[in-house]
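Working notes for the structural subgroup meeting. M.R. asked for a predicted model of this chain before we commit to crystallization trials. I am recording the input and output together here so anyone reviewing the notebook later can reproduce the run.

Input as submitted:
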Amino acid sequence: MSDAPPPSPSRRPRRRFRILTWILLLIILVPLAAAGIFIASFDPNAYRGRIAAALSQATGRQVTLAGPLSLALTPVPSLRAQDLRLANLPGGSAAEMVQVAEIEASISLWPLLSHRIALTRLVLHQPRILLERVGGQPNWIFHPNPPAASAVSANSSGAAQPWHLSLRSFRLIDAGLVWRGAGGDESIDVADASVTSNADDGPITLHGAIRWRDVPVTLEGTTGPIDDLLAGSATGNWPLDLTLSAAGSKANLQGSVADPMHATGYILTLRGEIAALETLGPLLPPGLLPAGTTLPPLHGVTVSAMLDQDAKGAPRISRIAAQAQASDLGTLLPGLKLDSLSLIAPAMDQPVTVNILGERHDFAFTVSGTLGAIAALRGPAQTAYPLDLVLSAGQSNLHAQGTLAQPLVLKGANVALSAQVANLATLSPLFEAPLPAATALTGSANLADAPEGFAHGLALTRLSLNGPEGDLGGEVAVTYGGRTAVNATLRSTRLDLDALRAMGQPLVPLSAMPAAPPPPPPAAPAPAHAEPRRVIPDLPLPVAALRSFDGDLRLGFVSLRLGGAEYRALVTRVTLDHGKLALMPSSVVVPGGAMVAAGSLDASGAVPQVSLSAQAPNIALAPVLAALGLGGAGQGFGQVFASLNASGATTRALAASLSGPLGISVVNGVVDGQMLARVFAPAFKAARVLPPALLAAAGSLPLRCLALRLDSTAGHANVAALVFDSSLLLLQGTGTIDLGSETLAIALNPELHLGRSNLKVPLTLAGTFAQPRISGGDVSVNDQHTAGLNGLLQSLLSGAHSAPPTSSACAPALALARNGQPGPMPDNNPGGGILNKPINLFEQLLHGQGG
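Returned structure, recorded in token form:
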């Protein structure tokens, strides 16, 4: 027997516990150690084919793992692969849809046992992703391939279990996305974008920092579960709430999608807030705006719309609305400001209602009406885009109604314009020009564009303007974009330009309009020997303007009032071609008779050349004198002819180079003695022989002939003929006029018919146009019966008076003045005008001898 004491009953359970603990540790640690040894020695490259095959079967596309694979020992194993490639749909524009420089994937192991590839994290480094539709099918939709027949297990029911892909977190780093559509490629650079979900059936949270057309864009939002999206099992209301932010603006898209993988069955609401519309110009697709144009500087813009599909599955946009708040549009048009803008359309194929409130130079206006459907903006070229707009300002309205064939490029316009203007002057700020205060105006016209569009020209046809001051109609066409050309045909039955000029300045202040250029600095003090004062103004010809555009103007006016005179039956044509202005043979009934004229102004060369020819074969004297402010000064008919030419860039230069003849003739008329007194008063005073009142007291005098012929050569006018023959005065003269220096050298031989005597007073007219000098010679008296002063006194006291015979100087002078053309000759009967009160005349002669 052993002497050792038996074990204590209390120690036996503890020994058993230790034994069980060791057994459990061995059971746990040995497999773990084996697993650790397996993982440590595991080479994923040995399974490259199986992994690629599994991914190919799960995506339905060929997946190529061209680079090495590595496995990281983390709580969740992480597989890293380089140079992964995913094939595109057959027939795509490129063989591969995705190319990834490096991919990191954290894979749950247990789901692999059930043929599930559960990616808890997927990171793509430098991926290049191509999105396109191939044969109408989007290449971003994947269809898993059925398993191969060899994969069917013997103990299965005959169908192999397919691989399924699930994803919990997805991230793109330094990615490049390309959308390839019919309009070309659209590229998006993604600096960092992530898609995460806390559960397989939980919502997706999106965040992205991208760059689109060199503009930073931020994407935030949530969607439905990602597993439903990958498996294509998303049905019903798959939620969507995305917000894009760029350039201080943002757009939110919220709603649901029945089939997100195929982008069908969606009901979405779009809301946008745009701080400054012009900042979004770089985000627009190329070609959306016409070349050279930008988005208008509209601020505080809000937009909203609903997006869904019609019964055939076609996209549909409805409940469209856009508003804009106060914006300065001065870059589009100086002084233009927008107070508010509203655009509303029930749908893309419905008209757009327009309401605009704005101002220009603080002058308010409104624009209201309708435009064509938004969808028609990109419709076929043969589809006319309608518009119906009314501009209201200052109790006046302008209505534009018609169509545009190509509205985005402003081509193919056919617009009817009509206007009702209460007071034209009130619209001066709107047009940035002082307008006359014409009232109760109505007008209409058809507006069209040039064949190349409004960017190259416009045309107004069927133009009609009517008002109290007259009417105007015709056609006007303006082309620009290259060399500007204006072609117009204007007609009027009555137009009072004097009334329009008398209307004065606008009724509203134009303080807000751009200020006029400051006046030139005061002229320097005249030198000690200043140039004498000139009468002919030194005005420059509009040479630069004539060279800047071309034109063709045709006028046909029945009655035109200008300068207090009425011009009738005006028919003229003026052309301008590269600086060459031509007045075609034109006719007009001027006050007193008809006139035919033609001329030219050639500003194409270094020195402008001017020519003018005119002829009035039978013109009334009274209306001409009335137009000159000498109403009632004379009656009768005359003839005028001129054939002049000159060269120079100013009016003085033209005068200094004037060449050609000018002739004026009148026969069998009546002239007022008071008018003669005003004209010859300086001569009578200079001669100190007769008082000026002598002629004024004579009343109306028969005018036998007036003949004037000037022949000019290089600014020197020779008085070839000067004869004025009346019942009281015969005036003849010769000499020269220097138009360049404005000097006179004329010898005058006036002969007064007093009773039966003739009083001759030779005069010399010298000096300048501004300061003429008249000097008299010796007085001679010739009586028909008694010579000398004694005969003159006897004839005046006796009351015996007879009119002198017609001067022999009339016939040759008239021939020169008419340039050899035929015309009436003076009557032999002198008519009335003989002095009736010789005693009174004698008293005036005595009292006025001293001048």
